[in-house]
Amino acid sequence: MRRKVGSGLFILLILFVFAQFISGCSAQYEVSVEADPQGAGGVTGGGTYEAGESVVVEASPLEGYEFAGWFIEGQKISSEKSYDFIAEEDVALTASFTEEEQLSRSVEFANEQDHGGETLQVVDEEGSIIFEYTFAEFKDWAAENWDDIFEETPAFMDPVYPKDLYPFFLDTATLSPDENKLAFSVHSYFAASYMSFVGVVNLETEEVTLIDEENDGQVDEFLWSPEGTYLAYTLTTAVGEGFYLTVDNAGSMEKEFTLSGGDLSEDPDLSAEDTFPRFRNVDWSESEERLYFTADIHLEGEFDWSIDPQGTDLRKQSDP
Which PROSITE patterns does the record cross-reference, listed alphabetically (predicted)? Predict the structure, then answer.
């Protein structure tokens, strides 16, 4: 009888040790990634992961293709090129790519200047002019509407009016993704300082509107959001290149926010001028939910950031 009890205890001990061993070995899951169609882009992040481990898969479309989303068994799970999740089961992800639509319209400048022209033209594939807008027309329109656009007259030391604008459109003019809107910028110049203004032309109605706030600096380059809701651009001042980053709402024609180096600096005593920021690699997420960019802040280094279109949720990408 004692032998039987002893044998039973021994078996129980073996089972306990085995159970502890099994519980200490976490499950592993396979994550596979592929591109559809093959050759349209690169995909990374596949492999073997421990249960509960964080997984990040990334898609990079090649020239001529756009990223359409991550799919599992035909169901779309993310519109972002970089998709993260927790390993809980074996999963096969497909990065879907589509061929980029070739633009049928383009922007040209007549009477070219060093950085723009006196006449904006939108032309089709055959080079026929679809829309033409001269600076003289804009100046006449601005003279009639200036006081209605701005709650307070734009000013450096003195008020700025249409007569103070340089008589040409900057070469930043660009079409919206659906090619139905044309964004343009003009600027004034006082004592080594710039003040610029952003406008949008609805090519279907030929209605012209200006954003209701001026910019400190000269517009470098526009970047429409994927749906054409927002305009992002950097601004150059006499101090440095890419000194501000701005987002305007192209629907309401209102400024959402402007970022300076002072907004990103960890030193509260530094002014915007002290930080000498350089904004680079500006790019929208596919969903328009965030704007990504790189900022090089004087004496602090270069970091990747993202922000929502309203400017209320600024994140350093290296933060948890």
Answer: PROKAR_LIPOPROTEIN, TONB_DEPENDENT_REC_1
Could you list the residue range(s) of the whole structural domain that residue 83 is in? 28-99
Which string of DSSP letters, residue by residue, matches the chain?
Answer: -HHHHHHHHHHHHHHHHHHHHHHHS--EEEEEEEEESTTSEEEE--EEEETT-EEEEEEEEPTTEEEEEEEETTEEEE-SSEEEEE--S-EEEEEEEEEPPPPSEEEEEEEEETTEEEEEEEEETT--EEEEEEHHHHHHHHHHHHHHH-SS--BSSSB--GGGS-SSEETT-EE-TTSSEEEEEEEEEETTEEEEEEEEEETTTTEEEE-SS-EEBEEEEEEE-TTSSEEEEEEE-SS-TT-EEEEEETTTTEEEEEE-HHHH-S-TT--HHHH--EEEEEEE-TTSS-EEEEEEETTTEEEEEEE-TTS--EEETT--
Please tell me whether residues 151 and 169 are part of one structural domain.
yes
Mark whether 160 and 298 lie in a shared domain: yes
Judge whether 87 lies within some domain. yes
Q: In this structure, is residue 17 part of a structural domain?
A: no
One digit per residue, pLDDT tens: the chain, 320 residues?
A: 444 445 555 555 555 444 444 444 569 999 999 999 999 999 999 999 999 999 999 999 998 899 999 999 989 999 889 999 999 999 999 999 998 876 689 999 999 887 889 999 999 988 899 999 999 999 999 999 999 999 889 987 789 999 999 999 999 999 999 999 999 999 997 755 788 999 999 999 999 999 999 998 899 889 999 999 999 999 987 665 558 899 999 999 999 999 987 787 766 665 555 556 778 889 999 889 999 998 877 656 678 889 999 999 999 876 54
Is the entire prediction scored with pTM above 0.90?
A: no
Show which of 48, 78, 99 is a domain's final residue.
99
